[in-house]
Amino acid sequence: MAPSHQAKSIKSARSLLTGLAVGACLLTGLSAASAQAPAKRPPAAPQATPQVSPQAAPQAVPGFWDPRRRPERPDLSRLTVIRFLTETDYPPFNYTGADGNPAGFNVDLARSLCEEIKVTCTVQMRRFETLVDALSSNRGDAIIASMAVSPQLRARVDFTDPYYRVPARFASRKDAVMPEIRPEYLEGKKVGVIGGSAHEAYLKAMFTDAELHAYPSDEAMRAALRKGEVDFIFGDAISLAFWINGTDSGDCCAFSGGPFVESRFFGEGIGIAVRKGNDVLRQALNWALFRVWEKGRYTDLWLRYFSVSPF
């Protein structure tokens, strides 16, 4: 079985990545989408290769590390090469660049980690559903492929600390944006959501007075909002951020309220997977992740690849 997370349980219409600045709150310990069946993909990315600019407005990005919990530098002498495995087609996280080589947020982050650890780094692209088996059979050392941490996967691999998380958010038409959303504010309001998703379960548990409308796909749900058939939609915030800022939305809509991050519904986060018991590599990657974030290189990558804040 291949890995997934709650975001991976929703098939998203990937819209073209057009904007280049991202504004986000400094949030530590946000929660990501929860894991379900491994072969599914997280919704978030446009199908087209992202048009990445070297410039971005100076913005804050969400912080996933606590500066008060600085990890000690581990013994790195046993590491000489890290063979990263990633997937083939999930832009802007992973895709094939114009030169035919692996590219994307995950790929650039992997290379930054190798630079920090000062080891040779290779990146091999494989189908997402084959990644865990490839790791287990020693065809690679670590998986960096937007893979959600889940109890099912923890039984097969070990994970680093999360390096990003996927909150849930509401979106509305631009003429009906609400700066804050609470359950009582949506009494009697029509809210679109993907049927059978963790997002629907959350609404049923927490927004009991809203009128829920379940849709089979992101395309159908978003079309309902564009047409005004529902007042809000609720789903994966990264996927919605790309849609809002892409051409498919027709500039109709915007986020309403802030992020929802309850881990019971939306999972533990996105981590780098290593083989069970490979604590040397796991600890080295955790140390390097903190260092890359502390030096501002993680911020540079986030601003480069994400067009609008999902937070």
UniProtKB/TrEMBL annotation:
Residues spanning the signal sequence: 1-35
Keyword Signal recorded: yes
Positions of the UniProt region annotated as Disordered: 36-72
Lineage of producing organism: Bacteria, Pseudomonadati, Pseudomonadota, Alphaproteobacteria, Hyphomicrobiales
Family annotation (Gene3D superfamilies): Periplasmic binding protein-like II
Protein's name according to its UniProt entry: ABC transporter substrate-binding protein
Pfam families registered for this protein in UniProt: SBP_bac_3 (PF00497)
All copies of domain Solute-binding protein family 3/N-terminal, residue ranges: 81-309
Keywords per UniProt: Signal
Transmembrane spans: none
Compositionally biased spans, kind Low complexity: 46-62
Top-rank lineage group of the source organism: Bacteria
